[in-house]
Amino acid sequence: MSMSDWSEIESHKEELRSLGKEQIAQRQAILSTNLQQTYMLMLELEKKELLLYGYNSEDRTQLYNYMASLKNWIAQAEVELKLLQEVSLELAEIEALAVSRLTLPPPSPPKEAVSLPTVTPYEGANSLPVYKKNLFVGREPLLEQLKAFWDSDSPLAPVVLYGHKFMGKTSILYNLNLKEGSQDLPVVVELSKVDSVETNARFFYLIAREIEAKAKAAGFRTGDLSISENFDTTANATTTMDDLLERLSRYMKKRRLILALDSFDLLQHWIEQGRVGTLVLEYLLEISHTYGWLGLVFAGSNAMEEVRQDYRSLFYSNAKHLNVSYLEPEAARKLITQPDYPDFALRYEPALVEAIYGLTFGQPYLIQVLCNELVYQWNDRWERNYKQLGPLLKITDLQPALTDHFFERASPYFEGVWKEVAPTGQKLMQIVAQWQQKNRGPNGSLISIHTEEVQKLAGLNPTEFEQFYATLSLHDLMQEENGHLTFRTELLRRWVVRQKP
Predict the structure, then answer these.
(1) Statement to judge: residues 312 and 367 lie in one domain
(2) Are 355 and 460 contained in the same domain?
(3) What is the enclosing helix (H) or strand (E) of 27?
């Protein structure tokens, strides 16, 4: 179903309304599960497709066609899920309005209890991007900045999103719906899912494949790309890319195509290794200038701010740079409590919400892993307590959730940021973490350590210390206030104490 066909959408929504709340909820659950399974299948097929590159062209073509059909199904399923969510909210509003108009006083509420184990809404806890719009919260200010950058008729300026691992950069790329009712096409290429890129032609093939699949899902006629013939050399690959973009131009009068390259650091790494050339950067800039409807977004780690000068002058001089950092307190609270997820039955005690923010400093991945752990433990208690348990998560539930299992589940974040800093930076983190563990304030509260003490314990001179602290600060891992250092994220400090003594 095309989202642009308004009459068809309204007709289908009317059919959905006739199903009733229960059947709609069942459809939502089944479709959501099928989508997640298909996302995972696509990951595996992409790996297989890369292994076939350069071998049997017939097998590769069959696999490519199957992947294209799956992507088309995913696009249609996402539309269907969105309509189901809209109709579910409409029915809930109608029911609430009917109740509000009753003149009789409501009966005393029964003792609160949940009749079924509650589902977890924390999609990002599985180290995957958040695809569902109603679960993607907290980045509205950043999306508004992007909208402001691109809200003109002039060519769209490239945008660089940088931040340390698991800050939600990939989720942002999948939610680039910059305007309400927008028909823009965000095309996300996750370079981290690519085992290796050995040639310029192979890089262009990856981009063309994603653009073509997205265009076909939107109903555009782009023709079929001949993978074996049109991407065998750099010259043929760029010619095929030009041809594809020209075919798309007639559909882009009131649309934008946002080409988003995730884990962009990898492309820089491939260039430094000589696998691909700077020509790929030059070509991306060229097409963004040629086609005013084409925008470029590059997402990567904080190391992108330390990129080699020749890349910066060539590629980044006109780009807009946005730091994807910790969520603001209000956005973090919304992510914790999930007010826009109708199937989430649990509520949070205010003290627990503040404690979660205090431990995570608004780090979105840690919030979701920790909240996931709280939900799992609540469901376990619900099973053991004969299904009579009030739907309230309390501050007393927090400490039992901070188990070895939690730190193991969150290890992709902890290990990821640990590896981003040099050994001396890691040593500084160990010094601060262990000192804070041994030196406490009143009632066992954390106190920060003076920078001179850290420098002394590390055996560094002032210049060396400033150099390594600057790296930690750039990576958003530590903060200095009035000459004292502390971790931004208390859970990271605890992990260092546990795993890196």
Answers:
(1) no
(2) no
(3) helix 21-51
pLDDT > 70? residue 173: yes
Is 122 part of any domain?
no
257-296 as b/e: b if 16+ CB within 10 A? bbbbbbbbbbbbebbeeebbeeebbebbbebbeebebbbb
Contact status, residue 264 vs residue 298, Cβ threshold 8 Å: yes
Max distance between CA atoms of the chain, in angstroms, equals 77
Which of 313 and 207 is assigned the larger pLDDT? 207
Q: Which of 381, 411, 441 is the last residue of a domain?
A: 411
In this structure, how many other beta carbons lie within 10 angstroms of the beta carbon of residue 105?
A: 6
Which of 325, 346, 365 lies at the terminal end of a domain, its last residue? 325
Which CATH number is 134's domain given? 3.40.50.300
Strand-by-strand arrangement of the 449-450 sheet:
449-450, 484-487, 478-481
Q: Is 8 part of any domain? A: yes
Q: What is the pTM of this model?
A: 0.72
Residue 199 and residue 310 share a domain? yes
pLDDT tens readout for residues 405-455? 999 999 999 998 998 888 888 999 999 999 999 998 887 788 999 999 999
Rounded to 5 degrees, φ, ψ at 298 are: -120, 125
φ/ψ (deg, to 5) at 297: -130, 130
261, 298 contact by CB (below 8 A)? yes
What is the tally of structural domains in the chain?
4
Regarding whether 278 and 151 lie in a shared domain, the answer is yes
Partner residues linked to 478 by β-bridges = 487
Q: What is the DSSP letter of 446?
A: B
Give CA 66 to chain center in angstroms. Answer: 26
**What are the tens digits of pLDDT across the range 10-45?**
667 667 777 777 777 778 778 777 777 777 787 777
Identify the domain containing residue 464 by its residue range.
421-499
260 and 307 co-located in one domain: yes
**Closest CA relative to residue 123, chosen from 191, 174, 88:** 174
Place 4 in a pLDDT band, splitting at 50, 70 and 90: very low
pLDDT band for 46, please (50, 70, 90 cuts): low
By DSSP bridging, strand 257-262 and strand 294-300 are parallel
Residues 66 and 143 in one domain: no
CA dihedral 55, 61, 66, 70 (to 10 degrees): 90
Between the CA of residue 348 and those of 118, 298, 334, 335, 391, what are the distances in Å? 14, 36, 11, 12, 9
Q: Are residues 369 and 317 both part of a single domain?
A: no
Q: Are 414 and 499 in contact (CB under 8 A)?
A: yes
> How far apart (Å, rounded) are the C-alpha atoms in residues 454 and 364?
29
Whether 387 and 443 share a structural domain: no
